[in-house]
Specification:
Elements (H helix, E strand, L loop, with lengths): L1 H10 L6 H26 L15 H34 L2 H12 L9 H35 L7 H33 L3 H28 L2 E3 L4 H12 L4 E7 L10 E6 L2 E7 H6 L2 H16 L2 H23 L3 H6 L8 H11 L1 H46 L7 H7 L5 H7 L7 H5 L15
Parallel strand pairs: 2-4
Antiparallel strand pairs: 1-2, 3-4
Helix pairs in contact: 1-11, 2-3, 3-5, 4-5, 5-6, 6-7, 7-11, 8-10, 10-14, 14-16
The protein binds zinc ion.
The site of zinc ion (ZN) has 5 residues, from helix 10 and helix 14.
Length: about 450
C-alpha cells in the first residue's frame, strides 16, 4: 500500500498534461492497430490457400473467404476511424464535464431523495450509454444488414434487431443502477480500504451473474430446449461420465435465429454444469463431429482452463482496483479534464481507464498467447480421447461454413486472435489432408458467421 501511496503522490503533479497524454495514447493505439490491419490486408490478397488446406478447400470457397475478410477489414477501418474521431472530439470539446453538469440538471426532474453523487452518476452513465449507442448505431446497422447480408450470414430481421436493442437497453437500465450504487457506496464508505471490498463485490457479481444469466437473461434473447433423445445425447452423456464432468442438463440453443454461426459451450457452477449446443452445429455436422467439438470443450474444463481463467480475472480485477486507488484522488487528472471543484468517483474511473489503455494492450496480448495455448491443449485432449479425425473435419467444416480467415499475418494474429488459425491447429493435430471434407461441404448459401466465443 505504501508503494501505491507514493506512486499516487508522484503522479499528482499540478498542470501535468494528462489530456495530451491520453489523446497521445489513443492515437498511438489507433495507428498501431491500423498498421497491423494493413499487414493482415496484404495476407487477405493472397490467391492460394495455405498448403495444409489445399485439398480441403476449393478455390471458390477460398476466394470468397478472402473477399469476406477484405470486406470486414475495410469496414473495420471505417468503424475504428469513426471511434477514434469520437474519442478525440470527446476529450477536445470537454464533453465529459459538460455532460456531467447537464445530467446534474436532469436530477431536478426526479424525486428529492435522488440527489447526491450516486444518483447523479447513475443518470450520467445511463445517458452516456445511450449516446454511445446512438453513435455506433449506423455502423451496427451497416454491419448486420449490408456486410453480413451480402455474404449470406445475416438471419436477423429489422424487427429482431430493434427488439434486441430495446431489450438490452432495458436490461442495462435495470442492472446498471444497483451495480453502480454498490460500487460507489463501497468507495465512499470504505475510504482507503476500498480495494479489498470492491474486489469482493466484483467477485460476488461474477458468481451472481453465472447463476442468474442462464435463468433470467439468456431466455430474453434465445430459447434453450433440452436435447432430444438419441445417439448424440447418449454419446455426450457417456463422455461427460467418463471425464467425471458434473453434467446437469444438455440444451440446444436457437442460434440460427440471428446468424448461421455455430458453436457449443458449457456454463454453470463448479458442481452443476450445463452444456449448450447450437442448433446450427447439429444441423451442419455429423453426430461424431459434434461429440468431438464437445470433447474439446470438456478438455478446457478437465485441464483446468476455466478455473485458471477465473483466477486470472480475479487478479486482473485486483490489479485494476489497486491502480485505481492511485488515481482516485489525483487532482491534476481531474483538473486537466475540466473538473476543478468536484471530483466524482465515476469520472475518475473513466479517466483512469483511459490512462490505463497502454497496459490493456499488453494484457490483451498476454491473454491471447495463453488462450491460444489452451486451445492447442484442448485439441490435444480431444485427440487423445480418439477424436482426431472428427475434430479435424469439424474444424475444417466450421471454417468453410464461417468463411473464417484462412491465413493470417503473425503480428496481427498474435495481437487479435484468441484462437490459433485452422492451419496451425491441423498441423498440431498431425492431420493428413484427405480431400474428403471438401466434397461434403455445402457451398450454396450455407455460409456461417463466426463471432463471439468459438470452440
Ligand atoms: Zn476451445
Amino acid at each position: 500500500m505504501d508503494i501505491l501511496q507514493r506512486l499516487a503522490r508522484f503522479l499528482d503533479r499540478p498542470l501535468f498534461p494528462w489530456k495530451k497524454l491520453i489523446i497521445g495514447f489513443s492515437v498511438a493505439q489507433f495507428c498501431f492497430e491500423e498498421f497491423l490491419s494493413f499487414r493482415q490486408f496484404r495476407v487477405l490478397k493472397n490467391t492460394k490457400p495455405p498448403k495444409v488446406l489445399e485439398q480441403e478447400v476449393s478455390q471458390q470457397v477460398y476466394d470468397k473467404s478472402q473477399e469476406y475478410g477484405r470486406a470486414k477489414a475495410k469496414f473495420g477501418f471505417v468503424r475504428s476511424l469513426w471511434g477514434q474521431i469520437q474519442n478525440v472530439a470527446f476529450i477536445h470539446f470537454d464533453v465529459l464535464p459538460k455532460l456531467w453538469s447537464w445530467t446534474g440538471g436532469l436530477l431536478r426532474f426526479l424525486p428529492a431523495r435522488f440527489s447526491g453523487e450516486i444518483s447523479h452518476s447513475i443518470v450520467f452513465v445511463l445517458t452516456f450509454i445511450l449516446i454511445q449507442q446512438a453513435l455506433s448505431l449506423p455502423a451496427n446497422v451497416y454491419h448486420t444488414f449490408v456486410l453480413e447480408e451480402k455474404f449470406g450470414f445475416n438471419k436477423q430481421t429489422p424487427k429482431l434487431f430493434i427488439s434486441d436493442m430495446v431489450k438490452s437497453n432495458l436490461l442495462a437500465f435495470v442492472l446498471a443502477p444497483p451495480i453502480l450504487a454498490g460500487f460507489l457506496s463501497i468507495v465512499k464508505k470504505t475510504g482507503n480500504q476500498f480495494v479489498t471490498y470492491l474486489w469482493l463485490f466484483a467477485a460476488f457479481l461474477q458468481v451472481f451473474s453465472i447463476t442468474v444469466y442462464p435463468i433470467f437473461i439468456l431466455p430474453l434473447f434465445n430459447k434453450l430446449s433440452p436435447l432430444e433423445e438419441g445417439k448424440l445425447k447418449t454419446e455426450t452423456e457417456a463422455l461427460a461420465k467418463k471425464l467425471k464432468f458434473p453434467l446437469h442438463e444438455l440444451f440446444v440453443i436457437d442460434g440460427s435465429k440471428r446468424s448461421a454461426h455455430s458453436n457449443a459451450y458449457f456454463f454453470g457452477l463448479p458442481w452443476k454444469k450445463h452444456i449448450v449446443i447450437y442448433d446450427t452445429l447439429i444441423e451442419k455436422s455429423e453426430e461424431a463431429e459434434v461429440v468431438a467439438v464437445l470433447a474439446h470443450e470438456l478438455g478446457h474444463w478437465q485441464l483446468g482452463h476455466t478455473t485458471r481463467l477465473f483466477f486470472i480475472s480475479q487478479i486482473n480485477v485486483l490489479y485494476i482496483f489497486s491502480l485505481f486507488s492511485v488515481f482516485i484522488n489525483n487532482a491534476s487528472l481531474y483538473a486537466d479534464f475540466g473538473f476543478l471543484q468536484e471530483h466524482p468517483i465515476i469520472i475518475g474511473f473513466i479517466l483512469f481507464s483511459d490512462a490505463l489503455a497502454p497496459m490493456d494492450l499488453v494484457i490483451k496480448l498476454l491473454m491471447n498467447i495463453m488462450s491460444r495455448r489452451f486451445e492447442f491443449q484442448a485439441d490435444e485432449f480431444a485427440r487423445n480421447l480418439g477424436y482426431k479425425a472428427e475434430l479435424a473435419s469439424s474444424l475444417v467444416k466450421l471454417q468453410i461454413q464461417n468463411l473464417s480467415t484462412m491465413d493470417a499475418d503473425w503480428m496481427y494474429a498474435s495481437y487479435h486472435f484468441s484462437h490459433p488459425i485452422l492451419s496451425e491447429r491441423l498441423k498440431a493435430l498431425d492431420w493428413t489432408p484427405t480431400g474428403k471434407v471438401v466434397e461434403e461441404k455445402s457451398e450454396e448459401g450455407g455460409v456461417e458467421k463466426a463471432s463471439g466465443r468459438e470452440l
